[in-house]
Amino acid sequence: MASENASSVTELILAGLTDLPELQLPLFCLFLFMYMVTVLGNLCFITLIRLNSHLHTPMYFFLFNLSFIDLCYSSVFTPKMLINFTSKKNIISYRGCMTQLYFFCFFAISEAYVLTSMAYDCYVAICNPLLYNVVMSPEVCSSLMLGSYLKAFLGAMAHTGCMLRLTFCDVNTINHYLCDIFPLLQLSCTSTHVNELVVFIVGGINVIVPSVTIFISYGFIVSSILRISSTEG
């Protein structure tokens, strides 16, 4: 179906944030400024961690990856959105849209699992400080990051692969400023039940597992701090 889809729909139109001409320039300047701050801030942070050997610790290792993900995540859709603010036709190619969807999902999922790894790192540091260097060894940290990217790869492949099987009809205007899952599903003229099931299962896992792990980790952290406070009191 991907080949059929590619032959029938070669371009899609992004509705964007607004169609009011008087707001295009102010929004362009605002988002350009925000994007520049994001890029420069993350690049400076990445460079600082890379060059300073004192920051080569598990916490900063995860922050390094989080900054990298944030930099890539914002770069997936912001440049195209900025171009659309200054152009009359907000067009994106079908292949470009599917590529944007894949990387949008990939970096969103990987960010969730990196935050989970950081929560676990805090839990070990506070609740098991004597075993911290053993538990959070470089090998363990690398494995956590590899697992985060692997889960993101599988999740993004599932969402994008299911989207490629759909056939889009004459209406090709995406009611969004980027190629996201649900706005694309609304354009399909074939059944989206499989896609909705994948969103429910894959999306549910990638939301529930990190959220529950983070809440449990910080629950143990708060409990440990309260025990220390009551003992000292």
UniProtKB/TrEMBL annotation:
It is found in: Cell membrane. The chain crosses the membrane at residues 25-48, 60-81, 101-123, 197-221. Pfam families: 7tm_4. It is a multi-pass membrane protein. One of its GO terms (cellular component) is plasma membrane. Residues 41-233 form the G-protein coupled receptors family 1 profile domain. The keyword Cell membrane applies. The keyword Cell membrane applies. Its main location: membrane. One of its GO terms (molecular function) is olfactory receptor activity. InterPro entries: GPCR_Rhodpsn, GPCR_Rhodpsn_7TM, Olfact_rcpt. Keywords: Cell membrane, G-protein coupled receptor, Membrane, Receptor, Transducer, Transmembrane, Transmembrane helix. This is G-protein coupled receptors family 1 profile domain-containing protein. It comes from the Eukaryota.
